[in-house]
Write a structure and sequence with these properties.
The protein is of the alpha+beta class. It has five helices and nine strands; from the N terminus they run βααββαβββαβαββ. Helix 1 crosses helix 2 and helix 2 crosses helix 3.
Length: 172
């Protein structure tokens, strides 16, 4: 799962670095408050983005848990409220096999998830507008009964040989 702030470059330019850092810390806390209790591994907080993943060993249905968490995160940010979001965020979710472990060298290393499934989630996130979750069809199949109106799209994901079939869920 990737959750990314929309319009962050213009926002940072408008409000300045100190206020922007405060806003990002508020976003990171909102994400942590939602994702960690739902057994997500909060992998990275990268500038204006949060990367998280679920391990099947820790949760019965990681796909539906990820979608539930994404909806909760967007609601926590104010999407779907009368006053509207306090931060514009789009989310991408994919499911698949990935390398999960330590990468790097003896001086600098990181625990992360890597592979096509992770890259595809990042590409899906780039298609999500503010308040949207773009999920691969493999994820959608786990939540189709809960979100039957999710719009079907084909994503021409950068670097992928084939189009990615996905669904768009708007929280609002």
């Amino acid at each position: 799962m990737f959750a990314d702030v929309r319009g962050s470059t213009a926002l940072a330019e408008r409000i300045g670095p100190t206020e922007f850092a405060g806003l990002m810390n508020r976003f990171y806390k909102a994400a942590s408050d939602v994702l960690v209790p739902r057994t997500a591994i909060l992998d990275k907080m990268i500038g204006d983005e949060v990367m998280a993943f679920y391990l099947p060993a820790f949760v019965d249905d990681s796909r539906s848990t990820a979608v539930e968490a994404a909806v909760a995160l967007l609601r926590n940010l104010g999407h779907g409220s009368k006053s509207g979001p306090w931060l514009d965020v789009g989310i991408g979710i994919n499911y698949g096999t990935a390398f999960v472990g330590k990468v790097g060298n003896k001086d600098v290393n990181d625990f992360t998830a890597l592979g096509d499934a992770v890259n595809t989630a990042a590409r899906l996130q780039s298609e999500a507008a503010s308040g949207q979750i773009v999920m691969s069809d493999s994820v959608y199949r786990s939540v189709a009964d809960d979100f039957p109106a999710a719009r079907s799209i084909e994503v021409d994901a950068k670097g992928k040989a084939d189009l990615v079939s996905a669904r768009v869920l708007t929280v609002g």
